[in-house]
Design brief:
With about 230 residues, the chain is an alpha/beta fold. The protein has a single domain (about 5-90, about 150-225), classed as P-loop containing nucleotide triphosphate hydrolases (Rossmann fold, 3-Layer(aba) Sandwich). It has seven helices and ten strands. The protein has helices at about 45-50, 70-75, 95-100, 110-115, 135-145, 165-175, 215-220, and strands at about 5-10, 20-30, 35-40, 60-65, 65-70, 75-80, 150-155, 180-185, 200-205, 205-210. A six-stranded mixed beta sheet has the order 6-7-8-3-9-10, sandwiched between helices. Strands 2-1-4-5 form a four-stranded antiparallel beta sheet, covered by helices on one side. Strand 1 and strand 2 (about 20-30) form a beta hairpin. The relative contact order is 0.18.
């Protein structure tokens, strides 16, 4: 059962509010990139918090490699929020990567190898706050992957990036498709990862749709996502 994310009958509501997620079920396997789209308030960030173990569902089950429970999900997943400053723990990229490697996975490579792969070698000793947003996002990805998660959750990774930064990040994500981890990527810019995501989960006020790219892109407007090329 290794490398399988199984979500069954998932429901969640914030106190005093109607369910934001109801009866959701899907599966993803190692090597999959699952796109996640929907209008603001449709539940994308909430779903990522549930998958990462930060929130507990009201009903249903989330299992990763056959194991369930918030503790297991937190241990086996990495969630990169829209504001990656909350994810970066070190004062410099060298310190942040060192912390990730210390708790990390066999085969992650040495610090210099990791920095070179993610184009961070020239800024290893700069204060994190002086990095560009693109550099911070690459550092967050490198640190997350060094820890060896089975599930990588990305919440609006293109937010705030200029066009060259978006294209660089797309290249980075293309490399993730060759790894045996599961990626769930929430985005308001589905066109940027059209060729990367093998399936799409569309969330809307009247339910959800899990579909292959062709069907999903034909239905984006139905789920509150603006048309894309």
């Amino acid at each position: 059962m290794a490398g399988l994310l199984a979500v069954e009958g998932l429901s969640f509501a914030y106190p005093g509010r109607p369910p934001i997620i109801a009866g959701l079920g899907f599966e993803a396997r190692g090597g999959d990139i699952l796109g996640l789209a929907g209008a603001n308030g449709a539940g994308k960030s909430t779903l990522l918090d549930l998958l990462s173990g930060l929130l507990a569902p009201d009903r249903g089950r989330i299992a990763l490699s056959g194991r369930s429970g918030a503790g297991e999900l937190r241990k086996r997943s990495a969630l990169l929020p829209q504001n990656v400053d909350y994810f970066l723990l070190g004062d410099s990229p060298r310190e942040d990567l060192g912390l990730a490697l210390a708790r990390g996975a066999p085969g992650a490579g040495g610090l210099d190898c990791l920095a070179g792969h993610w184009d961070l070698a020239g800024v290893l000793d700069q204060p994190v706050e002086t990095l560009s947003l693109g550099q911070k996002k690459r550092l967050a990805l490198a640190s997350a992957l060094a820890a060896g998660p089975e599930l990588l959750l990305l919440d609006e990774p293109f937010s705030g990036l200029d066009w060259p930064g978006c294209l660089k990040l797309v290249d980075d994500l293309a490399g993730l498709a060759r790894r045996e981890l599961i990626v769930v990527l929430a985005t308001h810019e589905p066109g940027l990862v059209r060729d990367l995501a093998g399936r799409w989960l569309l969330l809307g006020s009247r339910g959800h749709l899990l579909a292959e790219p062709a069907e999903a892109f034909g239905r984006l407007a139905d789920f509150g996502v603006r048309p894309v090329c």
